[in-house]
Write a structure and sequence with these properties.
The protein has 2 domains: 146 residues, Pnp Oxidase, Chain A (Roll); 86 residues, PNP-oxidase-like (Split barrel-like, Alpha-Beta Barrel), CATH 3.20.180.10. 34% of the residues lie in helices and 30% in strands. It contains 8 helices and 11 strands. Strands 1, 2, 3, 4, 5, 6, 7 and 8 form an 8-stranded antiparallel sheet that branches. It is globular. It starts with 8 loop residues before the first helix and ends with a helix.
């Protein structure tokens, strides 16, 4: 991360939550209370809360079923010294998703990790969400901030229509606007000319996530979006901006 760049801690945290696909989770061993750390794949809910698909056979799952307190480390995975990039430690409680919450967690996770569909239905696997109690953000030397959940989780109170329409939005963007997503990546997000086969990985009131393999970019909206109609206007505005830059 550029040490001279201005940092909005809440925005950077939301971006890392949306863009991260792998992280290190720390759980507590029953009895001894010793910390246990393991690598997991992650996705996020529309409000930014992390989602995991984990097996009850795994030690970290057995740990959190006994004591749900966890921490999850996410980082930018930028080239070079990893300590120069931004990272967050999400503290919270792991909760197994059920009912409608499980449906949403499954949809968001499998959109981020399509290959996981092969084992998502196995009986020992389940979707868990991490309900955050706080975030510790390190955004470079001397830029360390602790944030409460209301500072970094996205408010969905007025965006029920947008969230309900997300599956159709993702399908529409992938089917009809693949070239536009590549344009966003190239001209607005610095992905490089002709780089990647970008697809839509989700949307929320503050941005659109686009993904090429394990690489995820965050397209932030020029204003808060709460409805599919407002989303169409915002995406057209951003596409026009990208085309103007390319011209």
């Amino acid at each position: 991360m550029d040490p001279a760049a201005k940092v909005n801690p809440a925005r950077l945290t939301r971006s890392l939550l949306a863009r991260s696909r792998q992280g290190a989770i720390a759980t507590l061993m029953p009895g001894s209370g010793d910390p246990y750390c393991s690598l997991v794949n992650v996705a996020s809910l529309p409000d930014g809360a992390p989602v995991l698909l984990i097996s009850r056979l795994a030690l970290h799952t057995r740990n959190l079923l006994t004591d749900p307190r966890v921490s999850l480390m996410l980082d930018e995975r930028a080239p070079g010294d990893p300590l120069e990039g931004a990272r967050i430690m999400v503290a919270g409680r792991a909760v197994e998703a059920e009912g409608d919450a499980a449906t949403l967690a499954q949809r968001r996770y499998l959109t981020a990790h399509p290959a996981a569909e092969a084992f998502a239905a196995f009986k020992d696997f389940a979707f868990f969400t991490i309900v955050p109690t706080g975030v510790h953000l390190v955004a470079g030397f001397g830029r360390i901030v602790d944030l409460a959940p209301d500072r970094f989780l996205t408010d969905l109170g007025d965006a029920a229509d947008l969230i309900a329409a997300e599956p159709e939005i993702v399908a529409h963007m992938d089917a009809d606007h693949a070239q536009t997503m590549s344009l966003y990546a190239e001209m607005l997000l610095g992905a490089g000319s002709g780089a990647g086969a970008w697809r839509c990985a989700g949307c929320d009131p503050e941005g659109l996530d686009i993904q090429d393999g394990s690489r995820v970019l965050r397209l932030e909206f020029p204003r808060r979006i709460a409805t599919p109609a407002a989303l169409r206007h915002a995406l057209k505005e951003l596409a026009d901006r990208a085309r103007a830059l390319k011209a």
